[in-house]
Amino acid sequence: MADAKYTEANPFIPQTESIPSDSDKPFVPALLIIDMQNDFVYGSLPVPGAVTILRKVNELIKFPGFKIKVATRDSHPEEHVSFAKTHQKPLFTKITIYHPEDPDKLMGLEQVLWPVHCVASTGGADFIPGLVVDRFDHTIYKGTHPKIESYSAFRDAWGRNETELPGLLKEKGVTDVFCVGLAGDFCVKYTAMDAVEFGYRTWVIVDGVRSISHDDVAWNELKERGVRFTKFQDVKDKV
Ligand code: VGL
Ligand code: ZN
């Protein structure tokens, strides 16, 4: 049975598929818990409905079936390149940014200008109260460079510098990456797309994610890239 309340709140729920349970295939699942931080739930960049995923995310964190559980934290310096304030421009406008090592501005990247959020060592950057943080095997801090944006848990927005994540997943022999957290249309989206690029069978647990804008935009793109969708209940039954 579909979770009626969820469907009602999210008309863009994508088609989910069943996690295969063939025992002859290796199945080594990892859980990525993306940016469950105060600013994205209660603070300067609140994601609609974010607090409603906390119970499921906590249950997933407690499942023993995941080989490794890695959390991410957006962790920006005060004048980060992604902040509207840094550029004295209106919120949510889009600008082109350049890599700090590209003074000739040969290759630009589109950047949405955000409210100041998740500044390192402020309360806004802390994990939300009630999140089961003591079961994480590792925490990745991203977006720490003043001039470089980083949505994905795997690498920066330029695809240049990798985080610890690719090495950790490889070391554990992971086959399947499961993503939950915030925000579905930014950090979860880019993390899931990179997980596919890095060769993992990749799952977004749709009722463990909330987005800043409409879910459908991100989900259509993810589907085209080969990301699969599943639901909390199926993960509970199979992992
Ligand atoms: C995020 C916008 C800016 C996210 C991070 O966690 O999805 N979104 N920084
Ligand atoms: Zn950010």
Automatic annotation (TrEMBL):
Gene3D superfamilies on file: Isochorismatase-like (3.40.50.850)
Name of the protein described by the UniProt record? nicotinamidase
Protein family per UniProt:
Belongs to the isochorismatase family.
Q: In which pathway does it act?
A: Cofactor biosynthesis; nicotinate biosynthesis; nicotinate from nicotinamide: step 1/1
Every copy of the Isochorismatase-like domain together lies at 30-230
Q: Print the keywords alphabetically.
A: Hydrolase, Metal-binding, Pyridine nucleotide biosynthesis
List the top taxonomic levels of the source: Eukaryota, Fungi, Dikarya, Basidiomycota, Agaricomycotina
An example Gene Ontology biological process: pyridine nucleotide biosynthetic process
Q: Show the SUPFAM superfamilies listed in the entry.
A: Isochorismatase-like hydrolases
Q: Which organism is it from?
A: Coprinellus micaceus
